[in-house]
């Protein structure tokens, strides 16, 4: 493994340099090779009997070489992953200010519910009669989602927000085809998340960008000017990625509908308006909901996402299969397109019914909060973001500062002018201070953007510590302490990486170094 990137062990401000350790370990932070490097093929946790003589039915495709899996004793394997996990930052280790990602606490009650054997042990191919409880959870979750959004139908199978966008946009495309319409343009505001234009392009639409106004919201007049019989849909995030509520959303929706197009809403920022706004009343035709953002199910390294899509009456008939329907006293799945109830279904988004474990967690969060608790959660999320903005606006610069923010606080890099430092340097220095960086350089409409989303799950004490760290960094930046920033992170297991090279020439596969091979 490349160890050249090791962090400096010398604190920057105080005297005696720390000695280098013999092991490469730094107290709790342990240095270890990759599994393949520390494993020995002759060691294994499982004994599988030799297959003996057999006649292969694989037509010569059977594997002839050894599997070459790393062999480790159970404690070695455990330690390896525990050590790795300690080098990672997670919502359980500290405040996770990543904007647009809604990194909120994952309550342990949700985990307990998801681990109930009746949910954890069901198999997707079990007969519906034996999984009525699991189908009941899907039905109940859909009741909550429809009531929270004021929409008509919900498609459960998309596995993430971006997958939900694909589902919603495919429903829009299916609706246009069913209506005999040939439309090939999708309008996307320039502040949109990259997945929006990517989704539209993936299913063959041409993407037309809509500029933002000076106040950070979408320019209604530009939307109207861009609408034509060629436009299939507008994709809009509300509140938008600058953390601002699009106040003209109804006027925009009306214009979109008058032009025969559909209104896709990116629901990733639903946490800001949960229980406050029913998007169906804003004229939305399709919106994905990131259960892993708004409804506290783990994401990132913590687990798979789930991106159910709510649909308006106009798009509901095109929802993908499978769908849970009530059949007398029991629940059943409509599995095939063309079946009664799914005669116009757009097809299938994934093999089975969606992320069951995430459905249980999301419903558990909803039920433990109740309708009033969810409203309170979004109010607190908005309050936390505005508190952060108010406490930092004298040292960092706030674009679009005239209006209160929604659930995230956006800063630009104007305050760094003359310091020789960039947004990236601030983010890296934040790592040294024990925080995951905020979202940087997004949204693109703001120069050197820093987007902070504290969510409702941080206490005021925890917000104050985070604000304190950022204030100290801001003062240090302005005082010309450049080394603190340019060399950061000083204390992370790896120093600053060449991110461009990592993206352009990623090394995704480990190959045995030639020397090790020769020694065997
Ligand atoms: C997170 C996010 C998405 C994509 O959701 P995934 O679940 O990550 O695929 C789309 N739009 C916005 C605004 C987001 O924040």
TrEMBL record:
GO cellular component: cytosol; glycine cleavage complex
Start and end residues of each Glycine dehydrogenase C-terminal domain: 377-473
Gene Ontology BP term (one): glycine decarboxylation via glycine cleavage system
Any Pfam family matching the protein: GcvP2_C
GO molecular function: glycine binding; glycine dehydrogenase (decarboxylating) activity; pyridoxal phosphate binding
Chain positions covered by the region annotation Disordered: 1-21
EC number: 1.4.4.2
Keyword GTP-binding part of the UniProt annotation: no
Biased composition (Low complexity): 7-21
InterPro entries, per database record: Aminotrans_V_dom, GDC-P_C, GDC_P, PyrdxlP-dep_Trfase, PyrdxlP-dep_Trfase_major, PyrdxlP-dep_Trfase_small
Source organism, top-level taxon: Bacteria
Keywords on record: Oxidoreductase, Pyridoxal phosphate
Record's catalysed reaction(s): N(6)-[(R)-lipoyl]-L-lysyl-[glycine-cleavage complex H protein] + glycine + H(+) = N(6)-[(R)-S(8)-aminomethyldihydrolipoyl]-L-lysyl-[glycine-cleavage complex H protein] + CO2
Domain Aminotransferase class V positions: 177-300
Role played: The glycine cleavage system catalyzes the degradation of glycine. The P protein binds the alpha-amino group of glycine through its pyridoxal phosphate cofactor; CO(2) is released and the remaining methylamine moiety is then transferred to the lipoamide cofactor of the H protein.
Protein name from the UniProt record: glycine dehydrogenase (aminomethyl-transferring)
Source species: Azorhizobium oxalatiphilum
């Amino acid at each position: 493994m490349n160890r050249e990137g090791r962090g400096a062990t010398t604190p920057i401000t105080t005297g005696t340099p720390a000695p280098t350790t013999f092991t490469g370990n730094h107290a709790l932070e342990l240095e270890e090779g990759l599994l393949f490097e520390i494993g020995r093929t002759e060691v294994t946790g499982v004994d599988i009997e030799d297959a003996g003589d057999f006649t292969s039915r694989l037509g010569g495709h059977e594997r002839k070489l050894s599997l070459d899996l790393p062999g480790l004793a159970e404690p070695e394997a455990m330690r390896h992953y525990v050590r790795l996990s300690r080098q990672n930052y997670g919502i359980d280790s500290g405040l996770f200010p990543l904007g647009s990602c809604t990194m909120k606490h994952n309550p342990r009650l949700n985990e307990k519910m998801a681990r109930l054997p009746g949910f954890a042990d069901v198999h997707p191919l079990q007969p519906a009669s034996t999984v009525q409880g699991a189908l009941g959870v899907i039905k109940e979750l859909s009741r909550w989602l429809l009531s929270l959004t004021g929409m008509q139908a919900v498609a459960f199978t998309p596995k993430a927000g971006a997958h939900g966008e694909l589902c919603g946009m495919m429903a829009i495309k299916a609706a246009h085809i069913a209506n005999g319409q040939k439309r090939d343009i999708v309008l996307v505001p320039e502040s949109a998340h990259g997945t929006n234009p990517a989704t539209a392009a993936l299913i063959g639409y041409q993407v037309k960008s809509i500029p933002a106004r000076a106040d950070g919201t979408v320019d209604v007049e530009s939307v109207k000017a861009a609408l034509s019989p060629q436009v299939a849909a507008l994709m809009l995030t509300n509140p938008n990625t600058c953390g601002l509520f699009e106040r003209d959303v109804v006027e925009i929706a009306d214009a979109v509908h008058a032009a025969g197009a559909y209104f896709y809403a990116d629901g990733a920022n639903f946490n800001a308006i949960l229980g406050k706004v029913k998007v169906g009343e804003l004229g939305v035709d399709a919106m994905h909901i990131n259960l892993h953002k708004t409804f506290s199910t783990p994401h990132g390294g913590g687990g798979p996402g789930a991106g159910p899509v709510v649909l308006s009456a106009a798009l509901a008939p095109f929802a993908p299969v499978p769908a849970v329907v009530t059949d007398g006293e029991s629940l059943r799945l409509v599995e095939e397109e063309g079946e009664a109830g799914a005669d116009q279904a757009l097809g299938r988004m994934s093999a089975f019914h969606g992320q069951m474990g995430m459905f249980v967690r999301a419903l558990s969060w909803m039920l433990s909060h109740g309708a009033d608790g969810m409203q309170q959660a979004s109010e607190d999320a908005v309050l936390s973001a505005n508190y952060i903005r108010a406490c930092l606006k004298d040292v960092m610069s706030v674009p679009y500062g005239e209006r209160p923010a929604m659930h995230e606080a956006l800063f630009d890099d104007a305050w760094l002018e003359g310091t020789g430092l960039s947004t990236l340097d601030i983010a890296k220095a934040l790592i040294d201070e024990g925080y995951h960086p905020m979202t940087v350089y997004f949204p693109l409409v703001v120069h050197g953007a820093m987007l902070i989303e504290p969510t409702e799950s941080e206490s005021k004490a925890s917000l104050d510590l985070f604000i304190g760290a950022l204030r100290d960094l801001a003062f240090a930046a302005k005082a010309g302490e450049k080394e603190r920033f340019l060399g950061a992170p000083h204390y992370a297991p790896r120093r600053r990486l060449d991110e461009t090279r990592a993206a352009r020439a990623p090394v995704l596969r480990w190959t045995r170094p030639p020397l090790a091979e020769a020694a065997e």
